[in-house]
Write a structure and sequence with these properties.
The structure is a homodimer.
Chain A (H helix, E strand, L loop, with lengths): L18 E5 L2 E9 L6 E4 L11 H8 L3 E5 L15 H14 L5 E6 L1 H12 L4 E7 L14 H8 L9 H5 L4 H15 L10 H15 L15 E6 L8 H9 L3 E6 L6 H4 L1 H13 L1
Parallel strand pairs in A: 3-4, 3-5, 5-6, 6-7, 7-8
Antiparallel strand pairs in A: 1-2, 2-4
Chain lengths: 287, 287
């Protein structure tokens, strides 16, 4: 297979054009940049996030020595189609996207609901994944994952003006340092001028159902034993969206996982400690 | 205060002479090497360990850019005195040793029971400690800490020939990689020719009582709130001596702690992954 639309090495997070690839009935929107090479790092996005919610501080840091691919899954942003209401459906769509690019294998860096998709992808299509980085996520049937806390739900339902202010309490700790990191993150993700489309209410509803099904308690999770890939699990000390203990559970139950938990941080700890995170990821991928 | 017996920069783990310093009624045995500078890194040893159980792969890696101090606490190895039977007593002795060297502050790298001593030291003498690295340890009243499991106890009671073979099942995972790392560790700690004395049965009994008192369940541990120092918590995925969940608890309850858990590893994960561990420690100390 050949790689379509190989990137210009000079592109960055903010300049890489949005490209499109057909896979079956769907058109996937994606951006691709960095040092060409295999396997590239595929980023899988969180709930309510599109191409513009990835952090350029992380993607550009990785792009200095790796090829980076960001994409909108089916029904998200500029990608077409109806979003599936299961994690399994989202993982199957992700595999179709990867194959449509002509790639045989990717490293995966996935956040939150994206980390659930990544686990499912690694368990069901193991050869498609080389290494896995799971940030702010949890296993099937993890602790307090079937529904968000009332506090967390409120962050997705009360109006923020502008709307992206919602990401500060969702992703960052309440300390002065956490709030400052949140403002810096917003500044970074607002910098790109050529913007992706918002996630629709229909897609958000389907994805919320998918995450809830994944989070139902008392599910078997022997699927984790099939993920023999090297895994780096990362979270903040107090994740208000997917409780931090779920990252510990992932480390304990995956056969080959390393865990990093940062102090004074929340669901987006990797945005808050992006320099340390990028260095740790690169060391993990290069190992 | 002046620093006594400053080391020769050319000394290494295996060549640094054993030195002695008086503090009150006790004589403390210690070794000191590396790049002179403040604060030095003070290593606090595990149960049944003496000066020769520190890992030269770690101490020499740190010594390239830090000053390293290894010591025998009261009643251990070549140090004199009767070992106290509380962690508080061991922490008070540690403080006396540090002050006897004329040091105002140290970074502390502590393992297992040594990590309990380090927590107590940081909580009661906070200005004496700059940063804290806690490996394979747990908080007061942690999970399953009041006594070891029958399996773990057996490792300390069945005869190994030679005796230091006991450290392989205590410190390393049972996998092929873990066992190979254990053999490499034994080779490293056997290399020094000028050996310390074994830990006596009386000292082992006193220290076992101290660790059990620390581990009694249902104790308050608000002392952790007083440890506002930057802390790096490290453990293996399956610590058979102090269950790994206790490292997660430390991260969750300390105000400013980062956690790293390695895959396929046990109580001595830092020995098994000494290169990664030393790099992480140096980054943490330099930060």
């Amino acid at each position: 297979m050949t790689q379509l639309d190989a990137p210009a090495a000079a592109d960055t997070h903010n300049t890489a054009p949005t490209r499109f690839v057909e896979a079956g009935d769907n058109t996937f929107a994606y951006r691709r940049f960095g040092l060409p090479g295999e396997p590239p790092v595929l980023f899988i996005q969180h709930f309510r996030g599109n191409l513009d919610n990835f952090d350029p501080a992380i993607t550009d840091a990785l792009a200095a020595s790796r090829e980076v691919i960001l994409f909108d899954n089916v029904g998200v942003g500029a990608s077409t189609g109806k979003a599936p209401n299961t994690i399994a459906g989202m993982a199957a769509d992700t595999a179709r996207f990867v194959l449509a690019l002509g790639l045989a294998q990717v490293d995966v860096l996935a956040h939150s609901m994206g980390g659930q998709v990544a686990q499912q992808l690694a368990a069901t299509r193991p050869s498609l994944v080389r290494k896995l980085i799971l940030v702010g996520t949890g296993p099937r049937g993890g602790t307090d994952m079937v529904r968000m806390s009332d506090y967390a739900l409120s962050l997705f339902t009360i109006p923020f003006e502008p709307a992206d202010l919602m990401w500060i309490p969702i992703q960052f700790s309440g300390s002065e340092a956490g709030q400052a990191a949140g403002r810096a993150y917003l500044k970074r993700i607002r910098a790109r001028t050529d913007r992706d489309s918002d996630v629709s209410a229909e897609t958000a509803m389907a994805h919320a159902a998918a995450a809830a099904e994944w989070g139902r308690p008392y599910q078997r999770r022997d699927y984790l034993q099939r993920i023999t890939h090297p895994v780096l699990v990362v979270n903040g000390s107090e994740d208000v969206i997917i409780p931090t203990v779920n990252s510990f559970l992932l480390q304990q139950e995956l056969p080959n996982a390393e865990l990093v938990i940062y102090p004074d941080s929340n669901h987006g700890a990797h945005f808050q400690y992006h320099e340390r995170f990028a260095a740790t990821v690169l060391e993990f991928l290069d190992r």
